Amino acid sequence: MKESSKGTLAATSAFLLWSILPIFWKSLEGVPVQQTSAHRVVWTLLILIIILGVRGKLKELIVAIRSPKVILIHLAAALCLSGNWLLYVWATLNDRILEGALGYYINPFLYIILGSLFLGEKHTRMQMVAILVAAVGVALQFPAVEGVPWTAIGLAVTFAGYGMIRKTSPLGSFDGLTLETAIMLPISMIYLCMVHQSTGAFGNDPTVSLLLIATGVATAAPLLCFARGARSISLSLLGILQFIGPTGQLLIGWLMYHEPMPFLRILSFAVIWLAVIIYIISLRKKFQNS
Question: Which residue among 32, 97, 160, 199 is least crowded, i.e. fewest CB within 10 A of its CB?
Answer without folding.
Answer: 199
